[in-house]
């Protein structure tokens, strides 16, 4: 055993309390998704940084010890990564998701290479998992659903980096400016602190994400687990006092996890703001969502940055196009007020 006083604890470990209780152990069985492991940095790659438990990005150096979580990643602009215990390990996110890169975007740089030293273990020599620190979650059919007093909207995108988080933050800012107590949730994605801070910076009083429910990233988890967690997030925010809620779903509509959750949206929220980059994505995305019974209330994201592109998108979908700035200045309240309209 060895101490971890000098180790850098990644963002995905933010719910792990009393870190002094834990040490480096030896593997008795291969680690599972969500298990915490200790690794040494072999080669610094990626962005060369690591998010700590507060979301601060610090510089990485060869030889650094890090504590992260085994997991997967689905990121079309960066890496596709899988938890493969017998393979070379890499840092899949700066937040500390550790796995093996199986494909990467040609424009991305190679990831940080890691040497896995062993599992994080407790005083009883048992491996430590994020599941041990998770919020309680009940099967959907057993949950007591709690709709927020002023309603909930989801933000879904056509792809990665289409403007979803900026759109969600715009909704939060607009509702907060109107005097509402706002809750925000990142339903799916890969462990990182930037989206959580975006919600808080915009004024959210209560924030939840998949890390709060024991998942370092959501790619690869069963569909039922993800659906259950989405409902639990909404209900949890209501219990904490949120009057209006935004639920952000990562990646694009065609990402398998996102597409699975789309069918659940009509029973979880009143409508969707679709973040897209152009008119073609707007038309296809709106049609796909409507085919699953989802009410699309507006378009936003990158398309709203160009007046010409916005007019194209509005013309082919019949939907209003609103920028994050417009949402923050009052349009968000209008969308919420009209959520029950046909």
Automatic annotation (TrEMBL):
It comes from the Bacteria. Gene3D superfamilies: P-loop containing nucleotide triphosphate hydrolases (3.40.50.300). InterPro entries: P-loop_NTPase. This is DUF1611 domain-containing protein. The lineage of its organism: Bacteria, Bacillati, Actinomycetota, Actinomycetes, Pseudonocardiales.
């Amino acid at each position: 055993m060895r101490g971890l006083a000098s180790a850098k604890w990644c963002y995905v470990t933010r719910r792990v309390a009393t870190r002094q209780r834990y040490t480096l152990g030896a593997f008795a069985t291969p680690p599972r998704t969500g298990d915490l492991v200790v690794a040494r940095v072999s080669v610094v790659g990626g962005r060369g940084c690591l998010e700590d438990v507060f979301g601060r990005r610090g510089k990485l150096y060869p030889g650094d010890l890090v504590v992260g979580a085994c997991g997967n990643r689905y990121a079309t602009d960066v890496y596709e990564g899988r938890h493969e215990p017998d393979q070379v390990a890499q840092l899949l996110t700066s937040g500390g998701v550790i796995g093996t890169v199986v494909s990467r975007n040609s424009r991305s740089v190679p990831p940080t290479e890691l040497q896995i030293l062993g599992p994080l273990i407790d005083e009883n020599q048992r491996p430590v998992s994020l599941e041990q620190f998770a919020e309680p979650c009940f099967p959907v059919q057993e949950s007591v659903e709690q709709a927020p007093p002023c309603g909930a909207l989801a933000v879904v995108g056509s792809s990665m980096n289409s403007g979803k988080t900026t759109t969600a933050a715009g909704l939060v800012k607009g509702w907060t400016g109107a005097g509402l107590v706002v809750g925000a949730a990142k339903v799916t994605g890969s462990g990182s602190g930037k989206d959580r801070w975006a919600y808080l910076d915009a004024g959210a009083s209560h924030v939840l994400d998949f890390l709060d429910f024991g998942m370092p990233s959501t790619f690869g988890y069963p569909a039922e687990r993800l659906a259950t967690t989405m409902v639990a997030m909404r209900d949890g925010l209501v219990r904490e006092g949120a009057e209006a809620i935004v639920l952000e779903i990562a990646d694009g509509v065609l990402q398998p996890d996102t597409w699975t959750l789309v069918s659940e949206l009509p029973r979880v929220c009143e409508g969707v703001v679709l973040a897209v980059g152009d008119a073609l994505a707007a038309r296809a995305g709106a049609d796909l969502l409507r085919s699953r019974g989802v009410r699309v209330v507006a378009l936003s994201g990158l398309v709203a940055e160009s007046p010409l592109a916005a007019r194209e998108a509005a013309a082919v979908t019949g939907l209003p196009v609103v920028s994050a700035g417009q949402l923050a200045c009052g349009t968000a309240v209008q969308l919420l007020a009209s959520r029950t309209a046909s």
